[in-house]
Automatic annotation (TrEMBL):
Domain ATPase V1 complex subunit H C-terminal: 335-447
Family under the similarity heading: Belongs to the V-ATPase H subunit family.
Source organism of this protein record: Klebsormidium nitens (Green alga)
Keywords noted in UniProt: Hydrogen ion transport, Ion transport, Transport
GO molecular function, one term: proton-transporting ATPase activity, rotational mechanism
Protein name according to UniProt: V-type proton ATPase subunit H
Entry keyword annotation includes Ion transport: yes
Amino acid sequence: MADSQESMKEQVLKREIPWETYMTAKMIQGTDLMLLRRYDHRGPEVQSQLLNQDGAAYFKTFLAVLRNVSKEETTEYVLTLLDEALQAVPSRAALFHDKTLAADDIYGPFLRCLTRKNWFTQERATRILTLIISSRPRAGGSAPNGTSANGASTSSAATVPFDSLDPIVSPFIDFLCAQLKSPSHPSRSVPTAISALAALLRERSYRPLLVKADGVKLLAPHIVPPSGQQHVQLVYEAVLAVWLLTFHEPAQAAIRAARIIPKLIDVAKSGAKEKVVRVAVLSLKNLFDKFGSDMIEHGLLKVVVILQLQSWSDEDLSAALQALEESAKSNIKILSSFDQYKAEVLSGNLDWTPMHKDASFWRENIGKFEENDFQTLRVLITLLESSNDSRTLAVACHDLGQFIQYHPAGRGVALDLKAKEKVMGRMTHPDPEVQKQALLCIQKLLLSAKYTSYLQT
């Protein structure tokens, strides 16, 4: 795939574009024609020299072509020229914010390119737009130069409000989310979209836009232990995006709802490239105060202890591992297993953590379900009606069945709380696991207590 894209790029750069015709048609000006003749089909060294001398003027001309000429071949050609210039020296994107371009729409031409049904065009427009947005000057004329350990742009103290860019960034993020949902290209759309998001989310004011677009859950499928060098970069950028989102409180709930936390633990456990482990561990550290019990239930402490046996060159990673170990040990002392279970139920998102199928958990804690007039059980039954998540529904049916089996008055209590009707309503659910657990739960409701233990769960 990479070879075919490279071949396509070479073919595009060989094209002869009729610049004189465009000037005759008043699509470009005489100055534009002069600059295009000077730049067109020159070697990389000559083009680089020209951009160093007057890069803003050349970018202004390229924008004029993209704005006024709709022919696909020409659009591809100019986008490729720009993409090559920016990939060679990304800092050149700051030239789009030069005062000589103040009256130009520097975003519109690229946003329009995203609507074309042509991945070659979309990919280059995505990369260019990401760099232009990321290089937006801040107060005092400085450009962003990275992200600090707290997930903020390092020059954020001098930032100006970025809300004015929301009409630009919001549709761009929508496009990136659409690529994650339904890729235009089988192998390049997802890496390109995730790379762009990882860059954009360095700016804290763009993080709410991804949450609003319901895009956090789209990162989840790509947070897995990496396999192969190319996959390492994809996983790294996906986890980096999550780490940046952990600094935005509304995103934290979305991260948990998307079940990204156990995925982060799996990535850390894999002991892949240090940079991947680093962002996974730092993400877990940021989320621990809210979701520490979830992490402990998924075996965080054991993973952290094993990781600490390795030698890491990054001091932040070593410090984060130490902090996580101390927090996890303290948390284990404070929380009983039922406290963890209750917190999970009250969160509204259930997962197949070990306690759900642990017979000793149910035997030891069944009496605690009676606390506060069966509050935990009532919430569990409510989830059967209110949740749209298949896994939550399956686990809720299973747990209700466990309560019926282990509590001396389980059947009667469940029937009094109208659980039967809610479970039966899930027997026709499209997910087979929900159907299975609903059926088993109903069987436990109908059978006498001495037979329920024979049912397979």
